[in-house]
Write a structure and sequence with these properties.
With 84 residues, the chain is mostly helical. The protein has helices at 5-19, 24-28, 44-58, 73-83. The chain contains four helices and no strands. It is globular.
């Protein structure tokens, strides 16, 4: 089943809330333009956890990419769409 960009964004927001429950409001208000480090506040451990949960949630594999590949939520959505 193909998800829309909006549906992927909503699922990513849920995942990010699970990573940092204390920042629920910030995580739920992220957009495709939100930067993962500067706006969302993910550190390297958070980024790794995000990749693992995305792989499980979307049934995809991250191959030949590093966390530096993704600057924004939109970059992550693009990658997920390509792999689904």
């Amino acid at each position: 089943m193909q998800l829309s960009r909006k549906e992927i964004l909503e699922k990513l927001q849920e995942i990010m809330v699970s990573i940092n429950e204390n920042e629920r409001e910030k995580m739920e208000s992220t957009t495709e333009d939100s930067r993962l480090i500067e706006d969302v506040g993910l550190n390297s451990v958070g980024m790794l956890y995000l990749v693992i949960v995305i792989e499980e949630s979307f049934q995809i594999k991250f191959e030949d990419v590093g966390t530096a590949t993704f600057n924004t939520i939109g970059n992550v959505i693009d990658y997920i769409e390509e792999r689904m």
